[in-house]
Amino acid sequence: GENVEQHPSTLSVQEGDSAVIKCTYSDSASNYFPWYKQELGKGPQLIIDIRSNVGEKKDQRIAVTLNKTAKHFSLHITETQPEDSAVYFCADGSSASKIIFGSGTRLSIRP
Amino acid sequence: DTAVSQTPKYLVTQMGNDKSIKCEQNLGHDTMYWYKQDSKKFLKIMFSYNNKELIINETVPNRFSPKSPDKAHLNLHINSLELGDSAVYFCASSQTTDNQPQHFGDGTRLSIL
């Protein structure tokens, strides 16, 4: 069945350094991969997404890469700041009417 | 303006009671969802509705009954609450069903005593 695996479950980086979160998916037909950021007491918020017709997408300090052959996709955050601390979820949004979420990564930025 | 709003934000109640959570979206979207987030932060789809019609019911017990009076609202009624129902419930919406970003509310934290 559909499955998304996400690593690591926790990540602590020094402010200003980069953070990378990796995910794998199981369905080779999947073609839409959103990333969500969840702050304490809030709902998940979309931060970036990628479709299978591109290999990389960038938005300021955030980038996502997709390797369809290996069924991997990754989130890269550069020049991390304290406000980047949150739980990040990768997802497979390809199925009609639902998102399959990864298990989440708790990112902490050390001052 | 809040795009997806759900009420109440917190709900504390006794086992066996019946309770409802309301959700409204002002984005003009066709599709709405309910997700459950457990204590380990794992997010799982429960229901999705498109134009007031049920599309997905992910093997949720029939104690959970969603109702969509119109496209902008999807409420969740839960009968005979159990300890295992304690979680954060999120409502979300998207423009259509296919490969679209979803917009989430801020959740309802349900605690069963």
How does this structure look, described?
The complex is a heterodimer of chains A (111) and B (113). Chain A has 111 residues and is an all-beta fold. Chain A has no helices and eleven strands. Chain A has strands at 4-7, 10-14, 19-25, 32-38, 45-51, 56-59, 62-67, 72-77, 86-92, 100-101, 105-110. In chain A, strands 2, 4, 5, 9, 10 and 11 form a six-stranded mixed β-sheet that branches. In chain A, strands 1-3-8-7-6 form a five-stranded antiparallel β-sheet, with no helix packed on it. In chain A, a hairpin with a 6-residue loop joins strand 4 and strand 5 (45-51). Chain A starts with a strand and ends with a strand. The mean pLDDT of chain A is 94. Chain B is mainly β and 113 residues long. Chain B is 0% helix and 56% strand. Chain B has strands at residues 4-7, 10-13, 19-25, 31-37, 43-50, 53-57, 64-70, 73-78, 87-94, 103-104, 108-112. In chain B, the strands form two sheets. In chain B, strands 2, 4, 5, 6, 9, 10 and 11 form a seven-stranded mixed β-sheet that branches. Classes of the chains: A mainly beta (111), B mainly beta (113).
